[in-house]
Write the structure tokens for this entry.
Amino acid sequence: MRLRDKVCIVTGGASGIGRATCLLFAREGASLLVADKSLAGAHAVAEEAGPAALAIETDVADSRSVRAMIAGAVEHFGRLDVLVNNAGYGIAGSVVETDEAAWDRLMAVNLTGVFYGCKHAIPVMQRQGGGVIVNTASTTAIVGIPDRAAYCASKGGVAALTKAMALDHAADGIRVNCIAPGTVDSPYFQAMRAKSGDPEALDRSLAQRQAMGRLGAPEEIAKGMLFLACDDSSFATGSMLTVDGGMTAQ
Ligand SMILES: NC(=O)c1ccc[n+]([C@@H]2O[C@H](COP(=O)([O-])OP(=O)(O)OC[C@H]3O[C@@H](n4cnc5c(N)ncnc54)[C@H](O)[C@@H]3O)[C@@H](O)[C@H]2O)c1
């Protein structure tokens, strides 16, 4: 019960890594707000997580919606201990191929969404005397991958913002870390697979990119989220935890 009496929000909680994180946090005793732009998906996960979980419709790219999410946690549970900024997605393309509007939309969710979450959560945590923030970056914050220029840039931004916030708020008792998953077999990956002309070749090439020769499972990333969210990581701030099957070790 490593999150007993802790109030946690997980954005992008309706699917994949976020869903696995919600279910693990609930098993570890957390009171939970499952936040997602898909309210139906968030409800389904909250129901699965148990009576201490609630669903909220949130668009992380909209500052007012994120402010309401933070206020919702405080209203329902009386405080906010852990914010996991996890909502995000990828688009294909080199810089030349990437449409300007698609770039802006992706940055609004993957990077500005993290900014909004922290901007609205940190004052609450400051008043409480501390808190924990975990941001979902990616191995693409460390190494480039082809055909994903905007995604790599957004996750590099998340990693840099994590370090900046860790320094600004260490004295407030707020720890800010990020996780860098390798390629994970989530619904997002399955959607990408379905669109590819040759799914088996895609599986092989992405698995081979990781030294362990396989994709990760959302539950394996959730365990890293738990480590960063709970007191087991009490001396970690501004750090990036890679959980990537050895992708960035080579
Ligand atoms: N799957 C991977 O291989 C992988 C690898 C590294 C990092 N990541 C990152 O992990 C995070 C989760 O990815 P996943 O693979 O579980 O994806 P997923 O598509 O399974 O889940 C993402 C969730 O985020 C929600 N979401 C998207 N835009 C949103 C918005 N504007 N506001 C609120 N919710 C929104 C979606 O509705 C969905 O429920 C993302 O930030 C992604 O970039 C994924």
Observations:
- The chain has two domains: 7-181+217-242, 188-215.
- Residues 11-12, 14-18, 36-38, 41, 58-61, 86-89, 109, 136, 138, 181, 183-184, 186-189 surround nicotinamide-adenine-dinucleotide (CB under 6 Å).
- The longest helix spans residues 149-169.
